[in-house]
Amino acid sequence: MQESFKQSIDNLRTNKLRSFLTMFGIMWGVISIVMLSAMGEGFQQGNQAVLAELGKNIVIVRNGRTSTQVGGQRAGRVVRLTIEDARALKNGGRIIEEVSPELMRGGVAVKSAHNAASLQMSGIWPSFQRIRAIEVSDGRLINEADNAEARRVVVIGREASIQLFADRNPIGQPLKLNGLSYTVIGRVRKKFQDSNYTGRDELRLFVPYEAMRRDFPLLGPFDTPDSISAVIVAPYAWVADALREQMDSGAVRGVFGALGQTIVEKEIRGVLAPRHGFDIDDTEALSLWNTAVESVMFSKMTQTMQNFFVSVSLITLALGGIGVMNIMLVAVRERTREIGLRKAIGATSRSIHRQFIVEGLVLTLVSGALGFVVGLGFCGLINLAPRPARFSGMIVTPGTAMLAVVALAAVGVLAALYPAARAAALPPVESLRYEA
């Protein structure tokens, strides 16, 4: 094998231009695998990161209207959420990990010592911040003591902070909210959020629920002091994983219940239906947005795109393999007398076969290794450029490297098999008579 490898390298050096042109096809195929796989992975991770800015695998529950008659009550009745609904979901949900009510108010007159604005505000439990990925770059988040004592403290969105304080640090600064004095305790980090249900978090104010319930209750004609705008629910992680696995396999019966409800939605309706007197299968009674389903659909879409990219690159690599086979057939014809001479002095058909197999593998693997390095270099250069929010850059994974290695080995062996068999089958006497 060592001698076969040495001879293969010598043959590549003897025909430098031909070897380079042949290797270029393999190199380009490997570069395509690396770059297209890295691009697909970058889009997949970027999409998941953007979706997670709203909150990873959460369900947003809002008021709805019944579509069926239940217990003598008419259809079309409005179902209004209260703080007791949030507590019921927190205490009665088997697959629900965290819950928070949200009390929303728009058009709040906000005034700092430097500027004024009209902004949206939400009253929340501290768990809301974990569910909705509310994180601060300065200061701190709302804690349990803030909510229990109904403290007039506020976490401000990044762009709202710029409107009210320009480039100043807002932590510890007073704010007037409809004339009431609040203190800024935190500023939300920069969020690449392109989906929402009430507005971007960077332009919002967050205050303890109990403080907002006291200072800014809902004022609709049918609202009560206990009315809330929405309930934010986060199921356990295994629920979202099960949904993803079931949707990938197509066996959705275990995850989806009646009328296309996921098990999370089914449980939410199961807890709230007895409280509000609507049918558990009435999908109109509550407005539910399950971001886990959206996340799975985006994941499947980007995975399909990535599979297409990989298929295209494998076709390119296969075309390079055809080029290798063609060049090796030419080499067999050019070296017919050499093959005959080697057989005449004792070389076996097996050794000739092995020689050409090794040459094909060396040609493929050397060009593949160069292509992989060049592909990594291109990925690194692209990652230096500015990127959109839904693209996390060119991400080369171990799976990409393994795919390139396996594809290269397969192409190398397949490209060399037929030329090697032709060379091994040449009769020594006729080979010695051959004139190129």
Record the SSE blueprint:
Elements: H1 2-14, H2 16-54, E1 59-65, E2 78-79, H3 83-92, E3 96-111, E4 116-124, H4 127-131, E5 136-139, H5 144-148, E6 153-156, H6 158-165, E7 174-177, E8 180-188, E9 204-208, H7 209-215, E10 230-235, H8 237-249, H9 263-276, E11 286-290, H10 291-334, H11 336-344, H12 349-383, H13 398-425, H14 428-433
Parallel strand pairs: 4-9, 6-8
Antiparallel strand pairs: 1-2, 1-10, 1-11, 3-4, 3-7, 3-10, 5-8, 6-9, 7-8
How would you describe this protein?
The protein has 436 residues and is an alpha+beta fold. The chain has 2 domains: 2-52 and 298-433, no CATH class; 102-233, no CATH class. It has 14 helices and 11 strands. It has helices at 2-14, 16-54, 83-92, 127-131, 144-148, 158-165, 209-215, 237-249, 263-276, 291-334, 336-344, 349-383, 398-425, 428-433, and strands at residues 59-65, 78-79, 96-111, 116-124, 136-139, 153-156, 174-177, 180-188, 204-208, 230-235, 286-290. It has a 6-stranded mixed β-barrel with strand order 3-4-9-6-8-7. Helix 1 (2-14) crosses helix 12.
Mean pLDDT over the residues: 81
Count of helix runs: 14
Distance between the termini: 28 Å
Helical amount: 40-55%
Supply the number of structural domains: 2
CA-based shape: elongated
Rg (CA only): 33 Å
- Major beta sheet, strand line-up: 3-4-9-6-8-7
Largest pleated sheet: 6 strands, mixed, barrel
Please write the string of helix (H) and strand (E) elements: HHEEHEEHEHEHEEEHEHHEHHHHH
Beta strand %: 15-25%
As residue ranges, the low-confidence spans are 251-260
Q: Which structural class should the secondary elements be placed in?
A: alpha+beta
- Tell me how many strands there are: 11
Assembly state of the chains shown: single chain
